[in-house]
Write a structure and sequence with these properties.
Blueprint: E1 5-13, E2 18-27, E3 32-42, H1 44-57, E4 65-70, H2 73-80, H3 83-89, H4 98-108, E5 112-117, H5 125-138, E6 149-151, E7 157-159
Parallel strand pairs: 1-4, 4-5
Antiparallel strand pairs: 1-2, 2-3, 6-7
Helix pairs in contact: 1-4
């Protein structure tokens, strides 16, 4: 029998939109792994969601028992209150971050996932570590392009549907 996997996630963006990053801590009784990456121009919500996706995509075995701790009400409520499944039924019409939500649902359905919301900056070790990872990633000299996020030259913000 496999151990339950605990995943802490966090996202950050300075300026929102602005430079951003995500942080992930995966742990079991025996193992711990940290992941992070930074992006030139993105939003906090995109980084929060990408952290969850990256954490789930890092799992080796389908059907894993996973508990995800996030300080994002956006993520926790979207799943726990069923909003994301309603958005999916409506083909994500007029929903931001649809590219990431579609990617999330694909990997989410491969595991048994429970979401737990935690208050940010409240001293929870895993959450605090993810916050540091996300902020540090957003401050790297070399940042990736968040291809799902497009900022028009005149300041309008568009989100791809695919």
């Amino acid at each position: 029998m496999r151990n339950k996997i605990i995943i802490f996630t966090d996202g950050a963006a300075k300026g929102n939109p602005g430079p951003g990053g995500y942080g992930v801590v995966l742990q079991t009784d025996k193992y711990k792994k940290e992941l992070s990456e930074g992006y030139r121009l993105t939003t906090n919500n995109r980084m929060e969601l990408l952290a969850v996706i990256i954490g789930l995509e890092a799992l080796k075995f389908k059907g894993s028992e996973v508990v995800i701790y996030t300080d994002s009400k956006y993520i926790a409520d979207a799943v726990n209150k069923g909003w994301v499944f309603q958005w999916e039924r409506k083909a994500f019409r007029k929903k931001k971050n649809s590219d990431l939500w579609k990617r999330f649902l694909k990997i989410y359905r491969q595991h048994n996932v429970t979401f737990k919301w935690v208050e940010g900056h409240s001293g929870i070790e895993g959450n605090e570590r993810c916050d540091r990872l996300a902020v540090e990633a957003s401050e790297k000299n070399i940042l990736l392009e968040d291809k799902g996020y497009i900022a028009e030259s005149e300041g309008g913000i568009l989100f791809r549907n695919d």
